[in-house]
Structure formats: structure tokens, C-alpha cells
Write a structure and sequence with these properties.
With about 260 residues, the chain is α/β, with parallel strands linked by helices. It is built from 9 helices and 5 strands; from the N terminus they run αααβαβααβαβαβα.
Length: about 260
């Protein structure tokens, strides 16, 4: 059950009161609370009342929110967990492709090629996670892999973004560091990040093998890469979590292809 105080915090914190287009359908005088008048758009009444509710809030008439009703926390967790299960079932069908990606990376390593990884936000952090495993180890002792995370140097990123454009900063880094035969691995939940799309196009022009982890099956980034591993889910949190599973599967397969040694201590 959502308390009125919790609702007030939710709406005031996100600024949704500025974008509301209609009143809630049911108001309770006994539990009505007001938000600061400073949050109200010009011409609105000085008091904004919130409804008494149990479990669900009708958000179908609030601009900027999902049209689905907001469920209570436990129900929401069940829904997200079900989405995880569905996405993992789809991932199971892509295991041969994941093994193919690992084989491609192994071939690159044997030729003394390098792997360049890129992403934005949480996907960038996931790229750092993969880089640490490629250079270090996961389950077994294996040959270290020459891996680099792009946009990891703040002065370089800010200089390129300022002097050129943020959208081409990654492509510029590839121009400076990569060579034909290397691999460019892009991670994006949306598959629409312009800087990653531009980098993939430049990598293709330079003769790199391009691989991407994306959400939707069809996306600008996925269409611009040689190999696409998709996690089609409307929930970004599900896509990012499954991408973590993909990263671990890629490295586990790569360890086997490169020749795993003793189990890591």
C-alpha cells in the first residue's frame, strides 16, 4: 500500500506535477495532502490533492509515465523476474552465436590483435568489467587478452567532445588506437547511442570485426555490426542484467578456446 507521504515524495522528486494533464479520478478529503504551490504550473489551484489507493495507481492520465498501472513492489518484482526468465530463454537459443563470438575473439588474440570495448553509463561499467576479466581471469588461468575500454580517459573524452562532437569521440579514439584485424565490441541497451553507431561504422571502414550487445533485435547499432547479440525486452534493467550474463558466457567460452589451465584460486 502506498502512503500519501510516499506519493508526495515520488511526485515532488521527479517533477511530474509540472506535466500532469488531468486530476486523479478519485479524491479523499480525509487523506488529501497538498504539494507546495511553487510546483504547480501557472493557473493551477493552490492545492493538489492525492487519492487514497490500495496497491495500484491509475497512471493512464499522467503524461510522461508508462500507460501501465504502477504495481505494488512485490508484484513488480514478480513481473521483472518473469521478464528475466523470458530473456534467459531467448538467450539460450543464442549460445551458438556466443561461442562464435568467443572463437572470433580467440582468433584475434592469437594474431596479437586487440579488443576495444565501448558503452555509455552502465554499459560502460559492464565494458570495464569484461576488460578486467579479459586481462585477468574468471574461472581458470588463461592467456591474458589485450583489451581496452574506450572513453576511459576523461581528458581525452572531454577534449574530443568539446573540439569535435561527442557523437564522434569514440570513432576518433578508434582512429588513433585500432588497426585492421582488431575487434570492436559495443554494449548498448537501447542500440541507438549515436556515438556507438558512429564508432561501429568507423570500425567497419578500418577493417575491424564489429560485435554488439543490444536490447531490441532491430536497432541502428545492431544493423551496423557484423555480429549482434540481442536481448529483446522492454525493461532496460532486464537487458542490462542479461548483458552481464552474456559477458560472463563470452569469457567462459573464450577461456576454453584459448586453453584453460588450472582453476582460479
Amino acid at each position: 500500500m502506498f502512503s500519501d507521504a510516499r506519493l508526495r515524495r515520488c511526485f515532488s522528486a521527479t517533477g511530474l506535477t509540472r506535466r500532469m494533464t488531468a486530476w486523479f479520478p478519485t479524491l479523499s478529503k480525509r487523506r488529501a495532502e497538498s504539494l507546495p504551490a511553487s510546483l504547480h504550473p501557472p493557473g493551477w489551484p493552490s492545492r493538489l490533492t492525492l487519492p487514497r489507493t490500495r496497491g495500484q495507481i491509475d497512471c493512464s492520465r499522467i503524461d510522461g509515465l508508462s500507460r501501465r498501472a504502477v504495481l505494488d513492489p512485490v508484484s513488480q518484482l514478480y513481473n521483472v523476474f518473469a521478464a528475466y526468465q523470458a530473456s534467459l530463454e531467448l538467450l539460450h537459443k543464442q549460445l551458438p552465436m556466443i561461442a562464435e563470438v568467443a572463437d572470433t575473439l580467440a582468433s584475434t588474440v592469437r594474431r596479437n590483435g586487440r579488443i576495444f570495448i565501448a558503452g555509455n553509463g552502465g554499459s560502460h561499467s559492464l565494458g570495464e568489467h569484461l576488460c578486467a576479466e579479459l586481462i585477468g581471469r574468471l574461472s581458470y588461468e588463461a592467456r591474458p587478452v589485450g583489451a581496452f575500454v574506450l572513453q576511459n580517459c576523461t581528458p581525452v573524452t572531454t577534449a574530443l567532445s568539446n573540439d569535435y562532437r561527442f557523437e564522434i569521440a569514440l570513432a576518433r579514439e578508434l582512429d588513433a588506437l585500432a588497426r585492421p584485424g582488431d575487434v570492436f565490441l559495443a554494449i548498448s541497451a537501447s542500440g541507438e547511442s549515436r556515438n556507438l553507431v558512429e564508432a561501429a561504422l568507423r570500425a567497419n571502414e578500418m577493417g575491424l570485426t564489429t560485435v554488439c550487445l543490444v536490447g531490441r533485435s532491430v536497432s541502428p547499432l545492431g544493423d551496423g555490426c557484423h555480429v549482434r547479440l540481442a536481448t529483446p525486452s522492454p525493461e532496460i534493467v532486464v537487458v542490462q542484467q542479461v548483458h552481464l550474463v552474456v559477458v560472463h558466457l563470452i569469457w567462459l567460452a573464450l577461456e576454453q578456446v584459448l586453453g584453460a589451465g588450472e582453476p582460479a584460486g
